[in-house]
Amino acid sequence: MMSEVLILVLSFVILLAIGVPVAWSIGISSVLTILASIDSLAAFTTIAQRMATGLDSFSLLAIPLFILAGQIMNQGGIAKRLIDFAKALMGALPGGLIYVNVLAAMLFGAISGSAVAATSAIGGILGPPMEKEGYSKEFGAAVNITSSTTGLIIPPSNVLIVYSLASGGVSIASLFLAGYLPGILMGLALMLVAAIWIKKKKYPAGKRSSLRHIFVTFLDALPSLLLLVVVIGGIVSGIFTATEASGIAVLYTLVLSFINKELKISSLHRVFLGSVGTTAIVMLLIATSMSMSWVMSYENIPQAVSTALLGLSDNVFVILLIINLLLLFVGIFMDMTPAVLIFTPIFLPVVVALGVDPVHFGIIMIMNLCVGLCTPPVGSVLFIGVSVAKTSIQKVIKPLLPLYLAMAIVLLLVTFVPQISLWLPGLFE
Amino acid sequence: MKQKLDKLLGGFLVILLASMVLAVLWQIFSRYILNSPNSYTEEVSRFLFIWIGILGAAYASGQQDHLAIDILHHKLDELKRRRLKIGINVLIISFSLVVLVIGGGNLVYVNYELGQFSAALNLPLSFVYLVVPLSGILVIGYKVNEIINSKKYLV
Q: B116 and which of A227, A354, A393, B125 could share a cystine (Cβ 3.0–4.6 Å)?
């Protein structure tokens, strides 16, 4: 088995390093590994089959539908409304736009579930006013990048759906509920770092909003916020499955955008095509990751890792700490979706044996991999955030450092205080 | 030629996605409004999803949308970079040929020979899996085209 592990890891690292797209790298190294154990036609057929059947899951369908709903909302000016509402609430504070950014990212993520969409939509809208008021472009970008990951933890979250699949069916409703407090905690931690920075740089205060203005912007944002109630309420109360809720989200956003006259029939094709493009990238990652996950279990790799980890310690805190460090490292080189699909079957049995709740572990894993989205060389959110703000990765790294630290501290808190994740789902049981 | 294929493939995928949305909505409608849940909408939407996922892979390769780590690329001069990208395309072509076309083709053949049908719709599974070799051929087409016109696509 040792030689198979070596083939898998080495080929994967080399393929990634020379710049083969991640999804194909995963597929190619899976084939190379399984070729060492079974004959070639069987190997090719099995990998092809694992890729196709890996996508054969009704709960995965929620992903393209939530992506589509997010794209429709982007057309419908939803980001702008949420930002206006956040601005009315927090714009008066010194450096208020920074807090507005974090709050808007949490609200937007709560509705669209996509960190990349949040980064580009919010960064695009808040960038110019921040520059006009003399904010540091780099710090603004750094806050935008890190805060948009809160949307992956606050439901609906596509990556939690992926985790539910990888874990063999942990309840999506429980995962969604578990995400709220950790996501909000992350947002608050980022605001705290921002507050220290703002105080040091003496940023100007904005205009105070009248109560009336707050109310008007709230009414404007209300239909979008109501979607949240319908989708999450429906899932949590058990009325809809996550997939059905995502279908409702598409219908709701379509109707809303038509009523607001912000979407024309003629631009529907473009919106759908955009969603197809985004979906396709994620789907190939899921398909090849499912084949790699199968290859690993065929080669008994999860058992080997489990034995090795439990040989180091049987203290749950030590094991969680080691797994966190490993995942942080993985997250630097690997996108979130494949990382969840490949590493959940490896680590989950270990921590469950030590008494960790699978729902809690899901939140730890997602939160951990969020850090990787904001680090070079593959952090997709980092790239989008930097390009929206028209700056460079080298320049945002320095303001990013304290924000990374805040993320790491929240990650540790969430790891070692299970109640932060489990209290809310516990209330609904 | 490429533009035509992009448009055709993109248009087809949009139709698949729209059908999937309708299938899911119809499922909700029949379950909550008509009170007569059916088993076929779930199967239809799952099969549409497999097609979108696998065929989408070909579409995304055509758009060069798949994420990669490109640190090395920035360190090379133009000629070496182009050679490296040709090498990467050869790897993708090989994978598509052996796994998607040959492996996927065999998968279709085996399911056809065994006469496997889906549970609700009684659809031959070989038809569902047909998307795998089809997508493989399209990926190969896109990547060969990029190699031939490497000065345009692989810079």
A: B125
Percentage, residues of chain A above pLDDT 70: 99
pLDDT mean over A396-405: 93
- If one counts every other C-beta atom within 10 angstroms of the C-beta of residue B1, the result is 7
Residue B66 is given by DSSP the state S
Burial A115-150 (b: 16+ CB within 10 A, else e): bbbbbbbbbebbbebbeeeebbbbbbbbbbbbbbbb
Interface test with B, best of A14, A31, A281, A285 (most B CBs within 10 A): A281
Alpha helices in A313-417 (DSSP H): 316-333, 336-353, 358-373, 380-388, 393-416
Of B72, B102, B107, the CB nearest to A17: B72
Sign of CA dihedral B109, B111, B117, B118: negative
**pTM of the shown model:** 0.88
Answer yes or no: are the C-beta atoms of A6 and A36 closer than 8 Å: no
B95 touches chain A (CB under 8 A): yes
Please answer yes or no on whether B95 and A24 come within 8 Å at the CB atom.
yes
Q: Do A64 and B59 touch (CB under 8 A)?
A: no
Burial A8-39 (b: 16+ CB within 10 A, else e): beebbeebbebbbbbbbbbbbbbbbbbbeeee
Q: Of A285, A368, A284, which is closest to residue A320 (Cα–Cα)?
A: A368
Task: Retrieve residue B55's tokens.
Answer: 């065929």
Long-range contacts of A302-307 (CB under 8 A, 24+ apart): A302/A345, A302/A346, A302/A349, A304/A1, A304/A5, A305/A346, A305/A347, A305/A350, A306/A346, A306/A349, A306/A350, A306/A353
Nearest by CB: B84 against A18, A21, A27 = A18
User: If we measure between CA atoms, which residue out of A187, A185, A171 comes closest to residue A421?
Assistant: A185
Q: What is the pLDDT of residue B129?
A: 95
Q: Is the ipTM value over 0.90, yes or no?
A: yes
Residue of A212, A214, A240, A215 lying closest to A227 (CA atoms): A240
Average pLDDT over residues B38-62: 92
Any idea what the Cα angle at residue A344 is, between residues A339 and A346, rounded to 5°? Answer: 105
C-alpha B133 chain-centroid distance: 9
- pLDDT for A134-160, tens place per residue? 888 899 999 999 999 998 899 888 899
- Above 80 in pLDDT, residue A109? no
Quickly count: other Cβ atoms within 10 Å of residue B80's Cβ.
12
Name chain A contacts of B69, Cβ cutoff 8 Å.
16-17, 19, 22, 333, 377-378
